[in-house]
Specification:
It is a single chain. This protein is mainly alpha-helical. It is 36% helix and 7% strand. The protein contains 30 helices and 20 strands. Strands 1-16 form a two-stranded antiparallel ribbon. The longest helix is centred in the first third of the chain and has 39 residues. It is globular and about 80 Å long. Bound molecules: protoporphyrin IX containing FE. Protoporphyrin IX containing FE (HEM) binds next to helix 8 and helix 22.
């Protein structure tokens, strides 16, 4: 008997070895590539801009991480990691019993980290007069390690000037460091003004490359050959030819107005995203209102300018539009708009360093009129005026006021006495009211409820343990324990703000972004940004966090890069919020010596990488995501067969004050399921909402009373000097395109209808932007060189004197919308993503409330738990293993279940709130559009 078993075991072992040999043979080629890659070591981080990595790897790395398929696309301009194993759906997974998928995914994470390190090194350009220090250094420190700037001091006219030290050394202290301040001052206690309301936007591009149409820079003049200006190529022509949604049945859409009585028979066609819903579209508008605004109280500058297209002759581009063309296109020559605010348009000062001339800032500057911090300022306010719109509950001032309407409670309306722009009358009261609509109304109501839920939980805890230490401390009397019952309503309101802001940041980082970029490498990267690569391993994360903190204090310039690498291991949240030291009470034990009295502890976890934090102008450009919005919203009823679309409500009929009756009559639950099930628009060309091309704007008092927002997206970027698409990519460390044909996705078969469609788009791009005869003697950039080390010229590698596409003139927004080659599951393009890689991390790295001040002293014990566990009831795990991961129930799902409990049965099947709710997620990052069980009759699915 025993002999028989031996034979079986030997037979099984032989079988295993034989199959391993087969698999090894199958993987042999890529394994050799891996050995060769290992022998050559890691690619060095570029020390000069022209040697950047560009997202392109060598043959060995490509072979090791993705085999022959990956090698096949090395010559394309697009980043290589998208072709590695494991980065797509299940068909991208490597051979079983090999390490191919792990190599692919880790290879992708490595490439992403290289990109982040190089972006930190080459793409920080502050406009606030600190750039010279960044280049030249200060007090013996290299500029990239400077941590404090005189330019970030509070000015004498600031009411807190005296409180932070006046004209002596400035340091925020006491009440000023306790909570997020209204205007955003004192987040960094040594740089009080950083990130506060009205600071200047920064840039991500060399200053000389900004405002190319001014013609101040020789390279820019060579690049564009006099072909571009504010209205050239014509923005409304671009909007009408390249942005318009094609309609199979235009009368059923009525330019986005739908049919009478919100009939469900209306139909506005749009290209749909399979894995991103309408809640995701409005979520990002809700976020951008927190991060940035060029407008002040809904206004731009007082001067007006024409923006509508009209008959024209353009000799340089050999394009003629006559009256007939403009009528066909839907030009509105009478359109006018208020000009963008410019903070400073005087010529910038220059300085010399290392034998080179530098500009000290961009040719013109603009202001961010809200706080740059992720502080939920759209809900809580960013200055005294906006705070006056925020209504508190007079019966409990710790809460938002919510008023009853029917069976539910909602935010109250703005009143005549409130500081408002008249266009906002009838809207719900909130700090940031501009461009209000049903989606914003939904989120503002949900998070007002969430804030109040936190206050209720705090009060319940107070009732249970009134004398217990709640964890909060007042830095003015740091030794005094604050008991639950000592907390005043005003203080609790501000604690609530800290908690809600952190919860929102968490939702955005690990829920919205992982659905926007729906693949495994990005799932891991975003979770690593928040809580570290090692998930629950607190000990390992703690060790890494200490290494990161010590790198933050290093005087070695390379420390910045290592800091970024180690931070993705440890997670950015809570960096520097603990200081373990040996505990004299017991050998081998440690105690946390972090001390609220020590400014270095309070502030020590932040890192600005040598450049004060604010958003760059280019960040706004890549958030011009208007195609996400459909024209008609498909309204459903939660209680009465959610598979039926009951009516189609035009988004424009929910604009501004019209949102209020819609949200109250429809109810939050029905709007949640309606926007949760409906797909967002795809971020591509020919997909802007028709209603936005014809948006009513009575405040402008123009002949047409309308604005073409897609055209305005182009104009605003030009007014603010955003470099055009190809230079935008070169400056970001991505490869340039050399013709419009590069926009065609060569992964698709030649006969694929999508490829045919892309060719049509290329033809229209050529028609709108034109071609010219190139001149090889004109160098057009200093951001990159050709592969052979020669300068990049007007001919982009084509023979001198040949006709080349005016790819250099393409507006950044047009270019990134035209990118059809994208990593798996990417709703956005790789160009937009490159901007996020830097800024999504920086807004966490720079904020002490997400790093060293992420502590109970500021958030309370309950607050810290609420953020970590996604609510008050401890961690709750999702069922199953979505995409192979044990995963917590997502933070927004927990918020919705608290705010709108009737959603529970529908959300039973939902893992990520931004994935269309009735879609079957299938296996491993499937993008298929198929109904989940129970939703088969939903007309949103093809039968
Ligand atoms: C009903 C939906 C929306 C309406 C009516 C709307 C309207 C507008 C208008 C009128 C402007 C122009 C402001 C100006 O420069 O004068 C604008 C700017 C902008 N919109 Fe939208 N929008 C909507 C949805 C969205 C969404 C979903 C996003 C996604 C992020 C978005 C992102 C932006 C950005 C980034 C700007 C530039 C803001 C700035 O310059 O500070 N919008 N929008």
């Amino acid at each position: 008997m025993r002999r028989k078993w031996h034979i079986v075991i030997w037979a099984l072992a032989a079988l295993f070895l034989a199959s391993a040999a087969v698999y090894w043979r199958r993987d042999a080629e890529s394994a050799v590539d891996c050995l060769s890659l290992a022998n050559h070591g890691f690619h060095p981080i570029a020390s000069i801009r022209t040697r950047r990595f560009l997202g392109k790897v060598g043959k060995n790395a490509a072979g090791c991480r993705g085999g022959a398929r990956s090698i096949a696309y090395l010559a394309s301009p697009w980043v290589d990691w998208q072709n590695y194993w494991g980065g797509g759906d299940s068909s991208s997974l490597g051979q079983r019993w090999t390490t191919q998928s792990q190599r692919g995914i880790l290879g992708a994470l490595t490439d992403l980290e290289y990109q982040r390190m190089e972006l930190i090194q080459f793409n920080l350009f502050d406009n606030n007069k600190t750039y010279e220090t960044y280049v030249t250094g200060s007090g013996g420190l290299p500029g990239a390690l400077v941590k404090q700037w005189p330019e970030m001091r509070l000015p004498i006219q600031d009411p807190n000037y005296g409180n932070v030290g006046g004209n002596g050394a400035q340091l925020c202290w006491g009440q000023l460091i306790r909570f997020r301040t209204l205007s955003g001052i004192c987040n960094d206690i040594r740089n009080p003004a950083m990130g506060s309301t009205h600071q200047l936007f920064t840039r991500m591009m060399e200053f000389e490359s900004t405002f190319p149409d001014l013609g101040k820079d020789e390279l820019a003049r060579n690049r564009h050959g006099g072909r571009i200006s504010l209205l050239q190529p014509d923005p409304q022509v671009i909007s009408r030819k390249l942005f318009t949604r094609d309609q199979a049945n235009p009368q059923k859409c009525a330019a986005g107005l739908g049919l009478a009585n919100e009939s469900a028979d209306a139909q506005c066609d749009y290209k749909k995203a399979n894995t991103f819903n309408v809640l995701a579209a409005f979520w990002i508008q809700f976020m951008t209102h927190d991060w940035f605004s060029h407008l002040e109280e809904g206004h731009n500058a007082p001067e007006m300018m024409p923006t509508g297209c009209h008959p024209q002759v353009s000799a340089s581009r050999m394009t003629v539009f006559n009256n007939e063309d403009t009528t066909k296109l839907g030009c509105r020559p009478g359109d006018r708009v208020d000009k963008a605010y410019i903070a400073d348009s005087n010529d910038p000062a220059t300085f010399q360093y290392g034998g080179r001339n530098y500009l000290s800032r961009a040719y013109k500057t603009t202001r961010n009129n809200v706080t740059a911090w992720w502080d939920a300022s759209q809900l809580y306010g960013y200055d005294e005026t906006s705070r006056r719109r925020v209504k508190r509950d007079p019966t409990d001032m710790a809460k938002f006021l919510l008023v009853r309407d029917g069976n539910d409670v909602y935010l109250p309306l703005l009143q005549l006495g409130d500081p408002i722009n008249l266009a906002w009358m009838g809207q719900e009261a909130t700090a940031f009211p501009d461009n209000w609509n049903i989606g914003l109304s939904f989120y503002h109501n949900v998070f007002a409820r969430e804030h109040n839920a936190f206050v209720d939980a705090f009060r319940a805890q107070t009732a249970r343990t009134p004398d217990a230490d709640c964890g909060l401390r007042n830095p003015t009397v740091p030794d005094k324990i604050i008991r639950y019952r000592d907390v005043t309503p005003d203080d609790l309101f501000e604690v609530g703000r800290l908690v809600i802001a952190a919860e929102i940041a968490k939702i955005h980082t690990i829920e919205w972004t992982t659905q926007l970029l729906y693949n495994e490498p990005l799932y891991r990267a975003m979770n690593a940004n928040w809580s570290g690569l090692f998930g629950g391993d607190e000990e390992l994360a703690g060790i890494l966090k200490r290494i990161v903190s010590s790198l933050g204090g290093s005087s070695d310039a390379k420390a910045n890069q290592l800091y970024s690498v180690f931070a993705s291991g440890a997670g950015i949240i809570g960096l520097g919020n603990a200081k373990p030291e040996p505990d004299p009470a017991g050998p081998g034990r440690q105690k946390d010596t972090w001390d609220i009295r020590d400014p270095s502890d309070v502030n020590g976890g932040t890192n600005h990488f040598g450049s004060p934090f604010n958003f760059p102008e280019e960040f706004i450009t890549v958030y011009r995501l208007h195609p996400l919005v459909p024209d008609l919203l498909e309204y459903r009823n939660l209680e009465n067969d959610a598979n039926v679309i009951r009516k189609k409500v035009p988004v424009v009929k929910t604009f501004r004050g019209l949102a209020t009756p819609q949200i109250r009559e429809g109810g939050l639950a029905n709007w949640a399921i309606s926007m949760g099930r409906q797909r967002a628009g795809a971020l591509t060309l020919e997909n802007h909402p028709l209603f936005l091309q014809n948006l009513p704007m009575p405040r402008l008092k123009t002949a047409t009373n309308m604005m073409d927002i897609p055209a305005l997206d182009i104009i605003r970027d030009r007014e603010r000097g955003v470099p055009r698409y190809n230079e935008f990519r070169r400056q970001l460390g991505l490869k340039q395109l050399t013709s419009f044909d590069d926009f065609i996705d060569v992964h698709l078969a030649a006969s694929d209808p999508q490829r045919t469609q892309q060719k049509t788009v290329v033809r229209v791009l050529r028609e709108v932007y034109g071609q010219h005869r190139c001149d090889v003697s004109k160098t057009i950039t200093d951001a990159q060189l050709n592969d052979d080390g020669s300068p990049i010229t007007d001919c982009l590698g084509h023979p001198s004197g040949s006709m080349v596409d005016n790819i250099e003139d393409v507006d950044a927004v047009v270019g990134w919308l035209a990118e059809s080659t994208r990593p798996h599951g990417f709703a956005i393009s790789e160009t937009q993503f490159q901007v996020f890689v830097l800024n999504a991390s920086r807004r966490l790295f720079s904020d002490r409330f997400f790093t060293s001040s992420f502590r109970p002293e500021f958030y309370s014990n309950l607050g810290i738990r609420w953020v970590k566990d996604n609510g008050p009831d401890g961690k709750i795990m999702e069922k199953g293993m979505p995409n192979g991961h044990r995963q917590e129930v997502s933070p927004l799902k927990r918020v919705l279940l608290r705010a709108i409990p009737s959603l529970a049965p529908e959300l039973e099947n939902t893992v990520n709130i931004f994935d269309p709710w009735a879609r079957s997620r299938g296996v491993y990052y499937s993008l298929e559009w198929k109904p989940r069980a129970g939703a088969e009759s939903d007309p949103a699915f093809p039968h």
